[in-house]
Amino acid sequence: MLEMKNMKLGPMLLLLLCLNIVSSSVGNAPTCPADLGGDCSDSGEWEGEFFPGIPKIKYEGPSSKNPLAFKWYNADEEILGKKMKDWMRFSVAFWHTFRGNGGDPFGAPTKTWPWEDGTNSLAMAKRRMRANFEFIDKLGVDRWCFHDRDIAPDGKTLEEANANLDEVVALAKELQGTKIKPLWGTAQLFMHPRYMHGGATSSEVGVYVYAAAQVKKAMEVTHYLGGENYVFWGGREGYQTLLNTDMGRELDHLARFLEAAVAYKKKIGFNGTLLIEPKPQEPTKHQYDWDAATTANFLRKYGLIGEFKLNIECNHATLSGHSCHHELETARLNGLLGNIDANTGDPQIGWDTDQFLTDIAEATNVMISVIRNGGLAPGGFNFDAKLRRESTDVEDLFIAHITGMDTLARGLRNAAKIIEDGSLAELVRKRYESFDTEIGALIEAGKADFDLLEKKAKEWGEPKVPSAKQELAEMIFQCAL
Ligand code: XLS
Ligand code: NI
Ligand code: NI
């Protein structure tokens, strides 16, 4: 196993990192506290590699025992007529991989990445951005996702925050080169205290105004970086109690906000897809974008259905009491499946644990939906997933992503097997074949009224109801894993 180099930072850094959570929006602290002896400078430069000893990750096949190799994900291999990398369109989530520090409500951060200096300065943001692109290059993916406030420090004014963002984005643009781009960007409208009642759904008009300005800027930088989508996740767009909430007015405000985003997208010539990411709760008790069906209804009610798609996150699906497969199918059947935040929850824990997906059966179901959807482009799979608090080696960042990518690759291979074999599709076809009849066709065409149906019921008498063959379906599915 690889050893972490540059591990000079001690408990003092832990404390600073901890404080950094609380003060992450405060801005320009000095970059390299002298007493820590960190390997850093004011310019954000870094000597040598961020991940020394970690090679470019290659495909070695299922028999490989190398933790730093793919066993199932073979980027250029064709499955069902499309390269694996084009089915997947994997993306690294900046906030988890480069801002996640292992802190939780009960404990201090546990991760002391060698390039971090315990501040949220502009110089630190730039150094982190360099680490991000080395990581992406070594992992062999072409995409990344970010919130405005993850990648650059906030400011005392909107102008200062925007200037900080511009500086980091300019560097990101340079580091992206021609191959890498954002799968999506988004605005962080949940961390700052001003957003405690929401952004677009805040009871305070000044907050609505500020949120709009922040989204406007985040859309501009996403467009500038060549982003393919733009995400709205409304962590605070909801309520804690209906007693003090005008839900109708808040939902109207949210729709007006999204309408303005659509207009602005057109104004600046951004051709990416706008995505809404449903989540039922956390941090709010009730979030308005509860699940795919609720969000589809909201979009339809406000005439926004053609302007948005959905970003389905598997852990959010289970929080809303659905499987990920259910949410993907609901989105797909409504023509709304745009992107997947690839993660999973824990069956024993009732919150968004954001784990890397390792369940091969779940991945197979996910990929069945993706194949039925004809892929996800211009969306993809964003690893909205983080290391466990107890995983503290730099190489764990790689191992986690490799496992996530391999799991979905295995899912794709299995799903292709199931589709090529055809017996599951045949089981489903047979289950509904009584509708492949004259009367069935009339029903499906909306031409069978109750008089006609009553006549048929009398003619046929008691129907014979066949088995659903669930266990056979499960047997066929298991055989492909
Ligand atoms: C939180 C969400 C968030 C979005 C982006 O639960 O998953 O990370 O993906 O704001
Ligand atoms: Ni997400
Ligand atoms: Ni989430």
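^ nickel (II) ion complex. Residues 313, 315-316, 352, 354, 384 surround nickel (II) ion (ligand 3) (CB under 6 Å). The chain has two domains: 58-421, 427-479.
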